[in-house]
Amino acid sequence: MANIEIVYFSGYGHTDRLAQAVADGAGNSARLWKLSEDGTLPDDAWEALDQADAILYGSPTYMGGPAWQFKRFADDSSKRWFARDWQDKLAGGFTNSASTNGDKGSTLAYFNTLASQHGQIWVSLGQAPSNTLASTPADINWGGGSVGVTAISPSDSSPDQGPRNGDLDSARAFGARVASLAERFAA
Length: 187
Description:
- The protein is 39% helix and 19% strand.
- By secondary structure, it is an alpha/beta fold.
- Strand 3 (54-62) and strand 4 form a beta hairpin.
- Helix 1 packs across helix 6.
- The model has no long low-confidence stretch (mean pLDDT 95).
């Protein structure tokens, strides 16, 4: 079984829920590592990331990019970058914001760049958009992303109300996609 490690930050609980959906889709091989309020991880999380077959990155999109806590994690990963510890591991990402667009693409591009700097292999969302007149937020990939999971949690919603079910379904399907690819790469 491939090891999938999911490192993320959540400010209000919405991204916690999205991360859990990704992990649920990936199955028993996935573990969640939530960044602390000061953007740090315990040593055992770093060791797990070093041993992973896939590392997934998640953060809400704040002001057009990931939360500063995630940026601290990225900066702290520079020793792994220097040693090429994450070279050829699979990578992917997910993000959440209150708006339909919310500049989530910038956050996913940040994750993709971080993964590329580490020499990782990026896994795209792999889902067609739900973009017909009949499509609603209850449909998978209603936001129409392709780089990674994008989710919408209205600004006045509790974590129980957002992200919406279609986004959570998309996150679970993405987790399953990563798990399937990680199994193939690990074999």
